[in-house]
């Protein structure tokens, strides 16, 4: 069986036996780093989407409440105008 030795019998270094595994490890490490970064970016986007959904719900509720307030204000304005008219008629 043949084996690759980093040090040959005559003392010369077999650089291929060192560079190839280190290159493979670097590529695998880079891929893992990209995957982890992408995962956390995805989690951030998911959190942003949830926050945006809550914001939309809050905005819809605010519009509905504003419409109710406008209707109540219109009723109140009518009553105030009626009281003012009554005061003009009496006074």
Question: How would you describe the overall organization of this protein?
Answer:
This protein has 91 residues and is an all-alpha fold. Helices cover 84% and strands 0% of the residues. The chain contains one helix and no strands. The chain is rod-shaped, with a radius of gyration of 38 Å. The model has no long low-confidence stretch (mean pLDDT 89).
Give the structural class: mainly alpha
Name the quaternary structure: single chain
Helical fraction equals: over 70%
Characterize the main sheet. none
Strand percentage: under 5%
What do the pLDDT scores average to?
89
The number of E-state strands comes to 0
Radius of gyration: 38 Å
SSE pattern, N- to C-terminal: H
State the separation between the terminal residues, measured CA to CA.
120 Å
Helical element count? 1
Poorly predicted regions are: none
């Amino acid at each position: 069986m043949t084996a690759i030795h980093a040090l040959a019998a005559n003392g010369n270094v077999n650089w291929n036996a060192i560079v190839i595994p280190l290159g493979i490890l670097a590529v695998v490490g880079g891929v893992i780093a990209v995957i982890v970064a992408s995962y956390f970016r995805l989690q951030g986007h998911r959190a942003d989407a949830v926050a945006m959904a809550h914001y939309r719900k809050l905005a819809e509720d605010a519009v509905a409440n504003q419409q109710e307030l406008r209707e109540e204000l219109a009723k109140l304005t009518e009553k105030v105008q009626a009281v003012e008219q009554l005061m003009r008629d009496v006074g």
